[in-house]
Amino acid sequence: MKRNAFLTSSLVLSLLWGTLLLFAGACDSQPVKSQQATTSIYATKTPHPDGTGKVYLGREIAHVMSAAGGRWLERDTRQEEENVNLAIQKLNLQPNSVVADVGAGTGYYTFRLAPLVPQGKVYAVEVQDAFVSALEARKKELGLANVTVVKGSALSPNLPENSLDLAIMVDVYHEQAYPREMLQALHRALKPTGKLLLLEYRAEDTTVPIKELHKMSVAQANKELAANGFTLYRQENFLPIQHFLLYEKRQK
Q: From CA 210, how far away is CA 200, in angstroms rounded?
């Protein structure tokens, strides 16, 4: 809520305004402190049809794909279109690696990663209850004891600090409502040598058949990650329509 620039100095109106602020803070799903901390970081604009109207470092944040899009995540053509197997192979996971699949959705990546880290763990992080339930059911069906489903929030993946060897966000980062807070929370959750992988549809390629706000350029990704303590560690161009961008914590 933005404070009206023309507020009167009348005591009565000031008291009423204070009451309204308290009421709004009590009703908001995010703590008032968090809202205040992010007010100056994000700008607003007239929303694009696929966007929220909220802008971070020059980029409008896209709408989140709802759980109704789960079928698209599990489409039969996904391997052919994105070469998921190659992307996973290039992660160079160790048997004891601890990985977080942030924005796991249906678990398309989660349940392909889990068998590769038998002595490790995969955190499947989701904010949508329908996806959380689906992940729990699939984990039980597959009998994967090394998968832990985590209910995240818009501000944090809710993971232990200094616990991750790798965090991945597959076509997810551009939808984060609070990218700054999420990146900083992931920075804390990563071990000193931990890495963060973004797979994002290539904005530089107009032939990639994905909506504009659901793609990202390397330059934009680098700008946002650099602002939150990350440095590009490795960039690969082997995927058909996605960037493979691996980041490390900036060395102090």
A: 11
Q: Any alpha helices (H) in 39-178, and if so which ranges?
A: 70-73, 78-82, 84-89, 110-113, 129-142
Tell me the residue ranges of DSSP E strands in the chain.
Answer: 43-44, 51-56, 59-62, 98-102, 121-126, 147-151, 164-170, 190-202, 215-216, 230-236, 242-249
Q: Which single residue is written with the structure tokens 């678990």?
A: 107
Stated pTM of the model: 0.84
State the angle between helix axes of 179-189 and 218-226 in degrees (0 to 180), rounded to the nearest 10. 70
The residues near 179 (Cβ < 8 Å, ≥ 6 apart) are 56, 61, 173, 224
Structure tokens at 248: 């490390």
Helix and strand numbers, DSSP H then E, in the chain: 9, 11
Cα-atom radius of gyration of the chain, to the nearest Å? 20
User: pLDDT tens across 61-75, in order?
Assistant: 999 988 888 889 999
Yes or no: say if 232 and 245 are a contact pair by the CB < 8 Å rule.
yes
In angstroms, the Cα distances linking 61 to 12, 128, 247 are 39, 18, 21
> What is the tens place of the pLDDT at every residue in 1-53?
333 333 333 333 333 333 333 333 333 333 334 444 455 899 999 999 999 99
| Mean pLDDT, the chain, whole residue set | 87
